[in-house]
Amino acid sequence: LFDALAGRSDRHAFAVRLSQVTGAEWNDPGKDMPFASGDIPPILVLLGENELVFEFLGRQPPSAASGLSWAMLLPAMDPVRCDPRFTGMLAKSGLKDLRAAKVCQGKR
After folding, report:
1. Quick one: which of 50, 58, 106, 36 has its CA closest to 78?
2. Mind listing the pLDDT tens digit for each residue in 6-57?
3. DSSP track, 10-29
4. Which of the ends of the chain has fewer CB neighbours closer than 10 A, N or C?
5. Residue 87: is it exposed, middle or buried by C-beta count within 10 angstroms (0-12/13-18/19+)?
6. When comparing pLDDT for 21 and 75, which is higher?
7. What is the DSSP secondary-structure string of 54-104?
8. Considering the entire predicted model, what is its pTM?
């Protein structure tokens, strides 16, 4: 992650790999995946891979919603917060986004 953020490795390739992580992979200590599903969306945003955020979130089963809900409300998600796909995912999850009004003011 640090190499990708610092430009010492292929940022996009790392983001693609991260976006394809499954629950079975991040739950298995033998798979060498240091990130949990809730870590992945904000990391993808930090990497500037907003489309991969939506792909990752769209592939998650309904049972993962509770584990992802805190991640979706983090300030790190502000770059995608105003996107209708993101607001739709929040609504579908039953989450109230207290940051949206301030962050999205004038952006819609």
Report:
1. 50
2. 889 999 999 999 999 877 676 667 777 788 888 999 999 999 999 999 999 9
3. -HHHHHHHHHT--HHHHT-G
4. C
5. middle
6. 75
7. HHHHHHS-GGGHHHHHHHHTSGGGHHHHTSHHHHHHHHHHT---SSHHHHH
8. 0.84
